[in-house]
Design brief:
335 residues, 6% helix, globular
């Protein structure tokens, strides 16, 4: 896979090595020296370029998935939340810690799939209660996730999880959610069919093909931002944000990968007027496309957005109280 990269210069400023990389409308500077020690296969970039004319600050980490000296994993909690810094301390100070899943403030539980060491430790919520006149009906969307296999190959897919199965099912195609009066949706594991029960009233709905998703590590979020290198935001299918909310600006956390096996972890600072105003989902998707990603996935943002490298913050978190406790994080460790 080719990246559209122009190297405008390599030089030292105040002892900090900076390399300028131009991706579309943003110029990214290498800031590895600020987060040492780093393995040769991991790099950190920062931009303060205006984003569509508005103040902006963002960072991304690029890590080589094929580097066997790196361990890509997750950590999660049970009915409680920890700050990214507490996860950093709990996991013996790993190279990288970043927030991931959406969660319930009431129960502290993940609302998205989490896979650690090939085991399901978090499940997608497949049913959304109706409102108003639809109080007694339910909508059934399919959540998205990014996973890394044992062979260190990344994939983004739409995932069905069930406590009856030790392995989730994945579709490479998004599907329209349907509405019915059943509060639960299950998969026909006995006959191994790609039919969901209860069958929706509208027989015209075409179900995508599902296969076992054999991932070593995975975390869920949504919506998907990029598919096959092109912007395709699956918000309407995943029912993540209502109305025109995909064009609202917020702090963002997201992950993607390139066809040459580079994992990209992006955080965008926001809610700081005149300094860093955040990004829309559309702008976030465009950044991943400009970085040469093949697929990309939005994760929990807002006050949850936080990326630590060697325990040091990149963006400034938007909550006045500091880092928000979260139930799950993605981690990169040096073996």
């Amino acid at each position: 896979m080719k990246k559209s990269i122009s190297i405008s210069g390599l030089f030292f400023i105040a002892g900090i090595f900076i390399a300028d990389f131009s991706f579309g409308q943003l110029t990214w500077q290498n800031v590895d020296s600020l987060y040492q020690p780093l393995p040769a296969s991991v790099h950190i970039y920062k931009t303060t370029d205006l984003l569509d004319g508005k103040p902006n600050m963002a960072y991304y980490v690029e890590a080589d998935l094929k580097d066997k000296r790196l361990d890509f994993t997750v950590d999660t909690t049970y009915h409680r939340r920890l700050t990214p810094l507490k996860f950093y301390e709990k996991n013996n100070q790993p190279l990288l810690v970043v927030n991931t899943t959406f969660f319930s403030f009431a129960t502290n539980q993940n609302l998205n799939v989490v896979i650690k060491d090939r085991k399901l430790v978090g499940y997608n919520i497949h049913t959304i209660n109706g409102r108003g006149k639809d109080t007694f009906t339910y909508r059934h969307p399919l959540g998205s996730a990014i996973g890394i296999s044992k062979k260190r190959v990344a994939d983004i897919a739409w995932i069905f999880t069930d406590s009856l199965s030790v392995m989730p099912l994945a579709s490479q195609n998004v599907w329209e959610p349907f509405k019915d009066s059943f509060s639960k949706i299950t998969f026909d594991y006995i006959n191994k069919k790609t039919t969901f029960y209860p069958v929706p009233h509208k027989s015209s709905i075409n179900y995508p093909a599902f296969n076992k998703w054999k991932m070593q590590t995975a975390i869920g979020g949504g919506p998907v931002l990029l598919q096959s290198g092109e912007i395709h935001i699956s918000n309407n299918e995943e029912l993540k944000f209502a109305g025109k909310a995909i064009e609202d600006k917020h702090p963002r956390t997201a992950m993607g990968y390139t066809k040459d096996n580079k994992l990209i972890i992006l955080v965008i600072q926001g809610r700081f007027p005149g300094i860093a105003e955040g990004a829309t989902l559309t702008q976030e998707a465009q950044i991943f496309k400009d970085l040469g990603c093949w697929e990309a996935l939005n994760l929990d943002g807002g006050g949850s957005s936080c990326l630590l490298v060697n325990g040091k913050e990149t963006i400034k978190v938007s909550d006045a109280t500091g880092q928000r406790p979260v139930p799950a994080v993605f981690i990169i460790k040096n073996k």
